[in-house]
């Protein structure tokens, strides 16, 4: 009777193992299908967001702000305008070389923090924008050693 019981017990465990494996496979299949549904939903959501962004840009054209800073305190106005999704054109011809360098350093930090862009337009004139406008940054062309 000992051999027969151990034989039955061995095969019962085997059946239990098969049941557990089947349950695990069913559970994994449910997880895969749930992930697939979630992925499709997220993909649709991303498409809707992109479409909404394009639609919003068509409905609300970009605003442009022009700023002539006279001292370092005026730089905050440039950053604030850009944070309000405006394209900011600013001219540094009214400030000293030292102030211009300091202003550009501050604005460069804001460009990095806001994931924005800056480009030189003319001698002392720059354009600063968030991701609403694709501009190529050429800040290195600005020579702050020039007399203002």
From TrEMBL:
Residues 20-34 have a biased composition (Basic and acidic residues). It is found in: Cytoplasm. Its main location: cytoplasm. Pfam families: SepF. It comes from the Bacteria. Residues 20-62 are annotated as: Disordered. Cell division protein that is part of the divisome complex and is recruited early to the Z-ring. Probably stimulates Z-ring formation, perhaps through the cross-linking of FtsZ protofilaments. Its function overlaps with FtsA. Homodimer. Interacts with FtsZ. Belongs to the SepF family. This is Cell division protein SepF. The gene is sepF.
């Amino acid at each position: 009777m000992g051999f027969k019981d151990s034989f039955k017990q061995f095969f019962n465990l085997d059946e239990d193992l098969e049941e557990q494996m089947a349950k695990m496979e069913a559970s994994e299949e449910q997880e895969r299908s749930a992930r697939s549904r979630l992925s499709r939903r997220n993909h649709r959501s991303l498409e809707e967001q992109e479409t909404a962004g394009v639609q919003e840009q068509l409905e609300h054209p970009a605003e442009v702000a022009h700023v002539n800073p006279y001292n370092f305190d005026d730089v905050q106005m440039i950053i604030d305008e850009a944070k309000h999704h405006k394209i900011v054109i600013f001219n540094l011809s009214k400030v000293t070389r030292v102030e211009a360098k300091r202003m550009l350093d501050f604005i460069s930090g804001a460009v990095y923090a806001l994931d924005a862009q800056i480009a030189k337009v003319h001698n002392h004139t720059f354009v600063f924008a968030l991701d609403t406008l694709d501009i190529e940054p050429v800040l290195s062309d600005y020579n702050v050693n020039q007399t203002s």
